[in-house]
Amino acid sequence: WVRCLSIGDVRVIANAFHPGPLRNVGGARLVHRVLEQPRTMYLHSATTHDRNVVSAADVEAVIQHISCGDVELQAHRPFCIEGDEFTVTAFPFDAFRLLIVSGTTMIDDLPPEVQEYADSLGEILVVDAHNAYRKEYDVTAAQVEEIKSLIRQAAETEAEPAAMRYAFRKKAVASQNICGYLALLRLDYDGERYALFMIDANNIDLSFRRDIEVFFEEQDIQPVVVSTDNHAKTGMPPSLEYQPAGDHPSDVSAVFEFLEERDPRATIEPVISYGKQSVAINVIGEHFFNDLEGAVRSIGKQAVILFFFVISLQLILAMLTGFALV
Prior knowledge:
Blueprint: E1 2-7, E2 10-15, H1 30-35, E3 40-42, H2 56-64, E4 71-73, E5 79-82, E6 86-92, E7 97-103, H3 112-119, E8 124-128, H4 141-156, E9 164-172, E10 181-189, E11 192-199, H5 206-217, E12 222-227, H6 249-260, E13 272-277, H7 286-299, H8 301-321
Parallel strand pairs: 2-3, 7-8, 11-12
Antiparallel strand pairs: 1-2, 1-13, 4-13, 5-6, 6-7, 9-10, 10-11
Helix pairs in contact: 7-8
């Protein structure tokens, strides 16, 4: 599936697939293809590496299924529900709820069963904020159950209608660990102000996230800081060979230079709509990803790079000569 929340002229887009495995291979182009379009923001859904997109053609199929106008919505007032290890920030509407899951100390790749559980409760999109990096971390079964409990509470919580106004700004940036863009969606509800701040990166250093949150809180704005889980700067194995946003001084400079620029005031009351489309594409699957990561761990990164080089060379020669090499 591909889901899109349209707020005025801004499209907030998520999909069921994972933007990996690494560099510009397969789904690692997915985030860039969404964000290179004007007035877009990418949100990372509850999805894992077995749903990495295979090819550029599959990425394009996802892009072609973005639809934002199936049903018009009315905004309701946001709220937060806190658990022991996670917090859910809910942006409710009359016929849809956007639930963003942040890690208190860690979060990485919530499993699809989290979204499947939410689907059983109503028209709900769960976003993995991917905003608290911990090396070699995998979510546990107990943590999944906590997240499901928070989702259930968020689905059952009454939210009153509220007039919403918005402002949006996005900028292409270059830094060590930020892959391409920063985006800020300001949402004001009758004097209560929120900021959805997107960093185009593979997770976020927790202390850096705290600094960003303080920046907004000092302005009486409630922040929700998310990353896209973009794998464009991720190496092999993907679970180990990357650094989060904020790990390098260039990331910090890029973010705070962006935040300190003057923002347009959230004065426009938007038309809000939502759409969801099914799409069938090829994904890498669990076995291939696990075998690739296992190979890197056992025989080393250089050997696997050589393997992919040989395979690529064979494909090039096959195209030049017209024969398949076996």
